[in-house]
Specification:
A 3-stranded antiparallel beta sheet has the order 1-3-2. It has about 110 residues and is α+β, with helices and mostly antiparallel strands. It has 4 helices and 3 strands, in the order αβααββα. The protein has helices at about 10-15, 25-35, 45-55, 80-105; strands at about 25, 60-70, 70-80. It has one domain (about 10-105): Orthogonal Bundle (Arc Repressor Mutant, subunit A). The radius of gyration is 17 Å and the shape is elongated.
């Protein structure tokens, strides 16, 4: 069962990074940095701790391993529950942003109303 509670920014971007294809740790770090326009840089310990939690929650799972230059790379992929959780979280964040925009008198383009 997919949780409806909010997720961390790190988890949100890790799941988003895995939408298109499985990635290994370094690939996830790079994709998260790109998706967040450089605002979020994952450290290795943070990444693998988050991947362990997301795996335990059934939102991601190991896809395959490969050895490159004698080093093991484990690839992770988004699960169907992970896709649902990401969609729910994206909608939750969008709804929160709409509330804030209304309260601030902003239209969707981010301009103030007169």
């Amino acid at each position: 069962m997919v949780s409806t509670r909010g997720m961390s920014e790190q988890a949100f971007f890790i799941l988003t990074a895995l939408v298109d294809a499985p990635l290994h740790g370094y690939g996830i770090v790079g994709e998260v940095k790109s998706l967040s326009s450089g605002r979020l840089t994952l450290r290795v310990g943070t990444l693998y701790g988050a991947l362990d939690r997301l795996t335990t929650e059934g939102l991601v799972k190991p896809d395959h391993d490969e050895v490159i230059n004698g080093r093991l790379r484990r690839y992770y992929r988004l699960t169907p529950d992970g896709r649902i959780a990401l969609a729910l979280e994206a909608e939750r964040q969008a709804a929160n942003a709409r509330v804030a925009h209304r309260r601030l008198g902003l239209d969707l383009a981010g301009e103030g109303s007169s």
